[in-house]
Amino acid sequence: MRILILGGDGYLGWATAMHFSKRGHEVAVVDNFLRRRLHMERGTDSLTPIHSLQERVRVWGELTGKHIATYIGDLQNWQFVEHVFKEFRPETIVHYGQIPSAPYSMIDVHHAVFTHQNNVIGNLHVLFAMRDYAPESHLVKLGTMGEYGTPNIDIEEGYLEIEHKGRKDRLPFPKIPGSMYHLTKVHDSHNIHFTCRIWGLRATDLNQGVVYGIATDESEMDDRLINRFDYDESFGTALNRFCVQAVMGIPLTVYGKGGQTRGYLNIRDTLQCVELATLNPAAKGEFRVFNQFTEQFSVRELALKVQEAGRQLGISVEVAHYENPRVEMEEHYYNAQHTKLLELGLKPHFLSEELVESVINRVNQFKDRVIPDAVVPRIRWKTGDQEKKVEIVQREPGK
Ligand code: USQ
After folding, report:
1. CA of 144, closest atom in ligand 1
2. Does the global pTM surpass 0.85?
3. Ligand 1, atom 19: nearest CA belongs to which residue?
4. What domains appear along the chain, each with residue ranges and CATH number?
5. Less Cβ around it within 10 Å: N or C end of the chain?
6. Mean pLDDT in residue range 372-394
7. Closest ligand 1 atom, residue 324 Cα
8. Catalytic: 48?
9. Is the pLDDT of residue 399 over 90?
């Protein structure tokens, strides 16, 4: 199958490109290196020393004999998107090519507007290119569980059966996103749904939870293929950040009470899910939604797991509660359905102590590259970037 991966230089994109290429698909990646540039802006970097996309593709070819094509450009540029679609004629488009950071989008008006422009306009261009140049293709779009927020009812997979004043319908599940970034994904979902209804496009929205982990089978083949691993406040997700903090002796940054519960999954399961969605495409005109995560944890539970893994490795890890820079519920009901990918055959890699230990060990290998200042949160939801570190309000009793 011809598979186009948008954002193919990123954490999930590069891993996905190798995964599909290894299985014999014809793969092309699109990227404009925005993540690398945003790190420059923030004075942060990937923990792992990633190689340039060109070098990664070259090494991949050398090791496997397989070619990954590259298109360097911006999805906000319509002529570029047209060119890619006309030349590559994708059968599946895996769309990760967006800014994924809630904190980054909350810095100020410029970062909020830029995140909206980049994400919403880029996605619109993809939809129009599908209509005009690849009407039979299937869009596998990375959405987020954060589109739903934390409602006080069970979260369904995309749609809700509603009875209202004696009439029934199956309608999109209500969305209460928690950041300017999460809002962009809600806008995308509406735009994609609309184009499936109006133009008969086919699409799967993968509402993914928080991803953790470094290793995939392909990235382990050679250190020059290593994945990026972000741990800074903008681009690092909770568990990855906690593992870096554990190694650096920084009290784990649990925001507020730590009861914030989210869906989580291993990066290896992201690859499985995207492959399952690709090999079992949506029907023409169908807008399918899968909730993509394997387990739910509160951030405090995650921190305690990292503390325990540290103990096994002989590292003393302190868990602390910081003033919460975000506006979010710190204790709430959370029960999200996630059966559709399991029904398609997903075999989850659950979060084991061994996995946390292996991430900590890998972090330890690169600890000289950690920029300690990048770990500490500063971006506040109410007032943006204050250049003022968020302080500890309470320490968990030591173990
Ligand atoms: N959190 C902490 N301490 C930290 C970092 C985060 O307590 O040092 C808390 C946050 O306040 C939040 C939860 O952990 O309640 C998750 O935060 P996160 O930074 O790990 O993830 P989030 O901002 O939600 O965003 C990440 C990805 C995003 C994706 C989303 C899926 O960056 O691209 O859409 O996870 S979800 O969380 O389901 O919306």
Report:
1. 34
2. yes
3. 237
4. 2-213+267-293 (3.40.50.720)
5. C
6. 92
7. 11
8. no
9. no
